Amino acid sequence: MSLRHALLGLLVDRTASGYDLMKLFDTSLAHVWPATQSQVYGELTRLADAGLLEVVGQGPRGRKDYALTDTGLTELRRWLADPSAEQPRRSDTLLRVFFIDVLPPEQRLEYLKHLADQAAGRHADLRKVRDTLDWAEEGRLTANGAIALEFGLRFTAMQEEWARWAAQLIASREGGTGAEGS
Amino acid sequence: MSLRHALLGLLVDRTASGYDLMKLFDTSLAHVWPATQSQVYGELTRLADAGLLEVVGQGPRGRKDYALTDTGLTELRRWLADPSAEQPRRSDTLLRVFFIDVLPPEQRLEYLKHLADQAAGRHADLRKVRDTLDWAEEGRLTANGAIALEFGLRFTAMQEEWARWAAQLIASREGGTGAEGS
DNA sequence: TGTTTCATGTAAGACGTTACATGATTGG
DNA sequence: CCAATCATGTAACGTCTTACATGAAACA
After folding, report:
1. A117, B42, B156, B168: which is deepest, by most CB within 10 A?
2. Is B67 within a domain?
3. Chain A interface, mutation test: which of B99, B115, B159, most A Cβ atoms within 10 Å?
4. A136-178: per-residue pLDDT in tens?
5. Domain extent for B12
């Protein structure tokens, strides 16, 4: 249920339309909380109905500018300080690892190598983003976005190392004994 | 759409009932692909209708034993080798970091410290699991489960380090200049 | 006989994705 | 005048969660 909090957060220091917010989702929040246009417009209506947002202006083409209400800010603060609620993590990468023995030996290593390369690629992409970042810009989103970016860098580095480690382990498993696959 | 592949994978080297499979989900796959009873029974019916599974035996209390068909095995292999389809990741932890300035300064550090401690706690839990693992058991799930476990260990370690790094960064930001929050 | 475990299912609702539909305004 | 951009919405469908419903069999 955090799409609503993402919207509240984006409206803390500006008013914006659904269209504006979508652009923010597709840039700043793309890797943290992706959302579709369909979802954003629907949730904005619901948030306004619930009194967490209000329409403070209308523009051309039916544009509606939304602003955070006091109730909305309170709810945002409540959520931010709430340390509970680890959402259940699903990983189809790890799920594949569980069943990797179903593949013939060459394909096992191929898959793990692919994972490592993919992680390395995403790491390189993120590095490029960091090096291109406009540090002159001093908004909340760029400053804290950099912290999220650092998470991504560390995560992709870890993932690559892990995949290479796993490939080695599986290779040695095959080398050490006869084939144990299905 | 990977619940179905989890079910196919679990049925590679045994037949099982929905009830049996639920136990596997709650133990082996709990941290990788959680599923509810409701979901499992529904998906089993659909998979049998689609010909990927078949009922090979009935037991007391309406028990139905499912087995993988050739079509099912083929589909599982296809999915395992398919390197595409990174699912979009959502992280409410990182989302909170984006908006952390909305909190008063003490609470910012408190939140990050909480993240670090939580990661450390989960790391300790996983370590305990690893050290208690029955290495005599030589199934696919324990062997590959250990690889997934290693991922968890590395991930939680990384998360703790990152949270402590972020806390330091934010603390220095506040110390260096005047308060910049909303 | 009564409790626990085994065993399967349905229903309602939240959340997310994809696709479709519509039209005003701006700028070249 | 034409294309791109701005701007909002709806509908269908799939997945996941929570809660409810039912009952047979094992065991003490």
Report:
1. B156
2. yes
3. B99
4. 666 777 889 999 999 999 999 999 999 999 999 999 987 765 4
5. 3-81
